[in-house]
Amino acid sequence: MEYTGSKYIGEYVDGRMEGKAKYILPTETIYVGEMKDGVFHGEGTLYFPSGSQYEAIWENGLAIKGTYTFADRLHYDEKNWHYCDGYDRRFYTEILNGLKPAGMAQLTNMDPPRKIPKGYYDCGDGFYNPVTRVIKDYRNRFLRNADDDEHEWITRTCRKG
C-alpha cells in the first residue's frame, strides 16, 4: 500500500486482502465491500469524492452489475435514462422542484450556481484555467491537465467566470 498511496482496512487470508474491507485510493475514492484474492469481489460500493457512488456486484475486480448514483441522488438508469437528453433538457433539480418563472433562468443543476473564478471555466468536475490548462476540483485539488481536444471543448461549451 505504501507504494500506491492506498490504504486497506480489512481482513486477510493467507496474507491476501480478503473478506469485508474498506479500501481508500489515493484519489480519495473509497471502496467498501467484499474482497477476494486482493481484488473487489462480491457486493461493494465505490464512494467518489464528488459525493456520487457506484454500488455493484464484482467478480475478480470487474463490476458485473451495478447502479450509479450522482451526488444529488439522481440514479442513472441505462434503459430509461430521461435526464438531460434530446427530448427533455431540464436539470434534475428542475424535474424535482419545477421550472422557475419566466425570466429566471437556471444555468446549472445547482441553484444558485457555483461562483466561477474570473477567467476560469466550470467544466463539471472542477474549474479549468485556460492559461495553465490545469483542471482542479472544487476544493482546489489537482485533477488533470487538459489536452487540446478537452481545452477546445471546455472553452467552447462551458460557463466562464
TrEMBL record:
Alphabetized SUPFAM superfamilies for the sequence: Histone H3 K4-specific methyltransferase SET7/9 N-terminal domain
UniProt keyword Ribonucleoprotein, yes or no: no
UniProt key word Hydrolase: no
Keywords from the named record: Cell projection, Cilium, Flagellum, Repeat
Pfam families membership: MORN
Stored InterPro entries: MORN (IPR003409), Morn5 (IPR042814)
Coiled coil feature spans: none
CC annotations in GO: motile cilium
Gene3D superfamilies, per database record: Histone H3 K4-specific methyltransferase SET7/9 N-terminal domain
Subcellular location(s) per record: Cell projection, Cilium, Flagellum
Protein name: MORN repeat-containing protein 5
Organism listed in the record: Colobus angolensis palliatus (Peters' Angolan colobus)
